Amino acid sequence: MFPYNHSLVIEGFGVSSGRAGNFSIQNSDLIISIGSRLNTLKTGNNLSSFAREAKKVIVDIDSSELEKYELKGMKTDLLINSDVKDFFDIINEKIDRIEKKDILKWTEKINEWKRKYPPCPQEYFFQKEKVNPYVFMDALSKETKEGDIIITDAGANLTWTMQGYRVRKNQKLFSAFNHSPMGYSLPASIGANFAAKKPIICIIGDGGLQMNIQELATVKYHNLPIKIFLFNNHGYGIIQQTQDTWLNSNYVASNSESGVAFPDFIKISESYGIPTLSIKNHNELKEGIKKTLDYNKGPILCNVEIEQHHKIAPKSAPGKPIEDSMPLLDREEFYENMIVKPLD
After folding, report:
1. Long-range contacts of range 284-288, CB-CB < 8 Å, 24 or more positions apart?
2. Where are the beta strands (DSSP E) in 9-88?
3. Cα–Cα nearest to 322, from 7, 13, 11, 3
4. d(CA 344, CA 205)
């Protein structure tokens, strides 16, 4: 909806979102939720920990969604069963009578969090082997242009994109989000190209591409200008992260050593007649991304070698409040930045 550098844009919030967005939600005194079902990926599993010091006003057309909060332990202050358009029609009639508040100190605090906790910390740039996904998103953000359409898939590449990509003016960035159909972004890019009649940037993981790899034939048959960035970490990264968290890194059916077979995607793509290139490290990032985006003779696949064990960061563990993304942030330093009293 808005470019990343708009003065009031913070970030997303939730279990797998950046710290500035989560700190802002968790330290707010008023939350007005309009047309969002506030699922547990946004609130965390423990709904009583969500924006616990804030008054919460929730507008939803589905009455059953409004009924769930009390059952799951979230304190709410005003539930409005309404179509969002009707809600805004009434609000807009009264807007001139709403008292304006000076929120400068609050926005300054949010900007402090944004500066202190960027999605791509400086130390990520010094990774020597393979590609850090947040550094890739930083580079892709710089090379894309106004009006570009970016479609990302499911799993870790979806989260890395939503955390790290900086949306510019008139760009569209979207996915199927927590429907989480692996392989979605490739056929979605086909549809988007036919609808928009312009090149589409497709981000997909190696696991996701396996789900819909036959669609490369459709892409080539119609010679569609789809720029496929394949995040290749030779496994299921988000499953491995879960196994790291709960199973002492006992990987089962999540990488090539534990039972998952992956083809050579370069050879597969070329067998469909789609040209390819690879980005193996940070030194190749800028040129590789630029070549992929500038290619104008149809589809192209760019194989991006992602460090196999790079995690989604920050990411809250199940049961933790969304501002708590340990152990990636030192607890003592973390609570120095909190305004709201932490949970015991």
Report:
1. 285/131, 285/135, 285/136, 285/139, 286/139, 286/143
2. 30-34, 55-60, 78-81
3. 13
4. 38
Amino acid symbol at 158: L
User: What residues does each domain of the chain span?
Assistant: 1-120+319-344, 128-305
Q: In what order do the strands lie in the sheet with 30-34?
A: 30-34, 55-60, 78-81
Residue 244, token pair as written in the block: 């790291």
CATH code given to domain 128-305: 3.40.50.970
Q: Are 338 and 27 in contact (CB under 8 A)?
A: yes
Q: Phi/psi at 302 (nearest 5 deg)?
A: -110, 115
Task: Tell me whether strands 300-305 and 276-279 are parallel, antiparallel or unpaired.
Answer: parallel
Which regions of the chain are under pLDDT 70?
Answer: 326-344
Which residues on neighbouring strands pair with residue 302, listed in sequence order? 229, 277
Classified by CATH at the fold level, domain 1-120+319-344 comes out as Rossmann fold (3.40.50)
Tens of pLDDT, residue by residue over 97-126, are 878 888 899 999 999 999 999 999 898 999
